[in-house]
Automatic annotation (TrEMBL):
<dbReference type="GO" id="GO:0005886">
    <property type="term" value="C:plasma membrane"/>
</dbReference>
<dbReference type="InterPro" id="IPR001123">
    <property type="entry name" value="LeuE-type"/>
</dbReference>
<dbReference type="GO" id="GO:0015171">
    <property type="term" value="F:amino acid transmembrane transporter activity"/>
</dbReference>
<keyword id="KW-1133">Transmembrane helix</keyword>
<protein>
    <submittedName>
        <fullName>Homoserine/homoserine lactone efflux protein</fullName>
    </submittedName>
</protein>
<dbReference type="Pfam" id="PF01810">
    <property type="entry name" value="LysE"/>
</dbReference>
<keyword id="KW-1003">Cell membrane</keyword>
<keyword id="KW-0812">Transmembrane</keyword>
<keyword id="KW-0472">Membrane</keyword>
Length: 205
């Protein structure tokens, strides 16, 4: 995979990881309820769940592209519509959203279990990955290239939420983010809508 193409993949995966939602709420809750390492545990196990869905998506996309190009196109457009819906939802969220603490006392075992379950219990991740990875997967793509895609999605997701857990474990940071949540939501919304338009425009490969 060319470096420029991989950088595009990394940027898109980062955008997906950074979008507000239940995953951010999960890491936030376990960080505030159990401390830094509990939040990091939730982040790492969430990344395992994301990697599982990314792997399923990459395998499935290759088969659909090869055998059912029209179906693949319809799925891609549906995924793009989902990205746009996420963007509109973020724009309308205002100051509400996943930055509300709602902390309870938690353990690392709970964090690990919930990290995986939040990822696997969110089938919308499949739609998200279809929209994202459709830009990079081709029928003739090698196993190594597919592995790079999956590992990139896992590492960026895990790395982002580990960073969130480390940063939010400092009590001064969360109030600062809460005061600016509306700007975070607006920026994320605009970028997600732009990403949806890029998906509709056609593949990057």
């Amino acid at each position: 995979m060319p470096l420029t193409l991989w950088l595009s993949l990394a940027a898109i995966c980062a955008m997906g990881a950074m979008s507000p939602g239940p995953s951010l709420a999960l890491v936030l809750r376990h960080t505030l309820g159990g401390g830094r390492f509990t939040g990091v545990t939730a982040a790492v196990f969430h990344a395992f769940g994301v990697g599982f869905y990314a792997l399923l998506t990459v395998w499935g996309l290759g088969a659909i592209i090869a055998g059912f190009p029209l179906l693949f196109q319809l799925i891609t457009w549906f995924g793009a519509a989902y990205l746009a819906w996420l963007g509109v939802k973020a724009l309308r969220a205002g100051k509400a959203g996943a930055l509300e603490p709602n902390a309870i006392v938690t353990s690392r075992g709970q964090a690990a279990k919930e990290g995986v379950l939040v990822a696997l219990g969110n089938p919308k991740l499949i739609l998200f990955f279809v929209a994202l990875l459709s830009q990079f997967v081709t029928p003739e793509m090698s196993g190594v290239a597919k592995a790079i895609i999956v590992l990139t999605a896992m590492i960026i997701d895990g790395g982002w939420y580990v960073l969130v857990a480390v940063v939010l474990s400092h009590s001064q940071i969360l109030p600062w983010l809460q005061r600016r949540a509306h700007w975070i939501n607006r920026i994320t919304g605009v970028l997600l809508i732009a990403l949806a338009l890029r998906v509709v425009a056609g593949p990057l490969v």
